[in-house]
Amino acid sequence: MNALEIAQSFQPQIRERSDAIESNQRMPADLANSMADAGLFRMLVPEVYGGSEVHPQDFFDALVATSQADGAVGWVHMIASTTALMSASLPEHHARAMYLDDPNTITVGVTAPIGRAKETEGGGLQVTGRWPFGSGSQVAKWICGGCMIEENGELRKNDRGVAESLLVFFPADEVTIHDGTWQTSGLRGTGSHDIEVVQASVPEGRWAVLGKRARIDTPLYRFPTLGLLALGVSAVSIGIARCALEEFMALATDKTPTGSARSLANRPSVQKDVSQCVALIESAQAFTRQVIDEAWQTAIAEGRLSTTVKARLRLAATNNAWSAVEAVDKLYHAGGGTSIYLESRLQRCFRDVHVPTQHIMVAQPTLEVVGKVQLGIDPKQPL
Predict the structure, then answer these.
(1) What is the mean pLDDT of residues 140-163?
(2) Cβ pair 137, 175 in contact under 8 A
């Protein structure tokens, strides 16, 4: 089976446990381990380290499938998969130890460079930091956090005068998870509590430099890390929108609104809403397929992606997230009073789909950066 088929095979059991996942605010360890055993967290790991090294479209489609079953599970699936992408940038001995020697390992983390690191005499680092949004940390074996190196009280800069961001990996048992810090309106089941390390010792090289070309040079790893992360975030949004559409279709057939003699499905306004929502979701995914294919062909032919191609990847991702929100909002309102009850999946989709819009990878300012590229203006921000 390919990645999409494997993800689809998990949908029934994910749906069955969805309410418990939200109420417990975490992904069940046995479900995570089963998904790991099936290879769903190794999609972006290089083949030389035992991964699938899938086409970016397969990565996107698999995330849509798990997110359609449960947005929180899809989110953890996304975080674990994109964190594992770093295996292509780690020094070989660390990548082999973390991924090849333990093929079912789960790695998660936060890229924001909040942590501070100091070099040690042996060439390693001593790291202290606390990061919010530690999604899936409860089921991970390795957890990473974004850091910058301090020297004499100042951030160390490279030869271009820029302070580099490192993604530093820690064994999960060395990381404190601050349970109770993830109190949110949506995606509660991601367990995205704060994570923290204090003076953690990290051996030389157990980190990746963000924005630097991967050590593995195959088409997948010529895609920008942030571009793949943005696509992953947006795939969760599309999956949630597909769940809302599925739930609404069932509701519209069964529900006859108070004071009406015909079912919800027979209302012209509802028929219009459904048509518009299908178009929003399908057109967003079609544009994404087109852009991914363009980027893939460029990665093969030219060895790297231009700023214009990277901008189109980010545009597709941002369009996915906001098209999904528009679709879910329409369906939520079309569902009437039924939508507000806790037993309705529509209210869950409504809450969940608005969370990814706050992620920096697909937030509204992304459109300004992309617009600059389209107008020939230097965006001065990484894509």
Answers:
(1) 89
(2) yes
pTM for the full predicted model: 0.96
Q: Can you read off the two tokens belonging to residue 166?
A: 């490192």
Whole-angstrom CA distances from 263 to 242, 245, 277 are 22, 17, 19
For residue 150, what are the β-bridge partners? 155
- List C-alpha distances in Å: 56 to 75, 115, 291, 292, 326: 17, 30, 11, 7, 25
171-229 confidence digits (pLDDT tens): 999 999 999 999 999 999 999 999 999 999 999 999 999 988 999 999 999 999 999 99
* Residue pair 184/217 in contact by the 8 Å Cβ criterion: no
CA 107 to mean position of chain CA atoms: 13
| DSSP of 125-150 | EEEEEEES--TTGGG-SEEEEEEEEE
Using CB atoms within 10 Å of the CB of residue 123, give its burial: 0 to 12 exposed, 13 to 18 middle, 19+ buried. Answer: exposed
Q: Is the dihedral of CA 295, 297, 302, 308 positive or negative?
A: negative
Pairing of strands 166-171, 154-155: unpaired
How many Å apart are CA 301 and CA 298, to the nearest integer? 5
Q: How far apart are CA 16 and CA 48, in angstroms?
A: 36
| pLDDT score of 253 | 86
Helices 56-69, 71-84: axis angle to 10 degrees equals 150
| Residue 180 falls in which region: left (phi positive, over 0), alpha (psi -120 to 50) or beta | left
Query: pLDDT, tens digit, for every residue of 349-379?
Result: 999 999 999 999 999 999 999 999 999 998 8
Checking if the pLDDT of 262 tops 70, the result is no
Mean pLDDT, rounded, of the chain? 95
Q: Are 142 and 173 in contact (CB under 8 A)?
A: no
Exposed (0-12), middle (13-18) or buried (19+): which is 353, by Cβ within 10 Å?
Answer: buried
Report the 10 Å Cβ neighbour count for 344: 18
Angle at 142 between CA 213 and CA 51, to 5 degrees: 55
How many residues appear in the chain?
A: 383
Predicted pLDDT of residue 1: 87
Q: Cβ distance 40 to 62 under 8 Å?
A: yes
Q: Is the predicted pLDDT of residue 309 greater than 70, yes or no?
A: yes
Is residue 111 within 8 Å of residue 165, measured between CB atoms? yes
Q: Which secondary structure element, helix H or strand E, spans residue 201, and what is its range?
A: strand 194-202
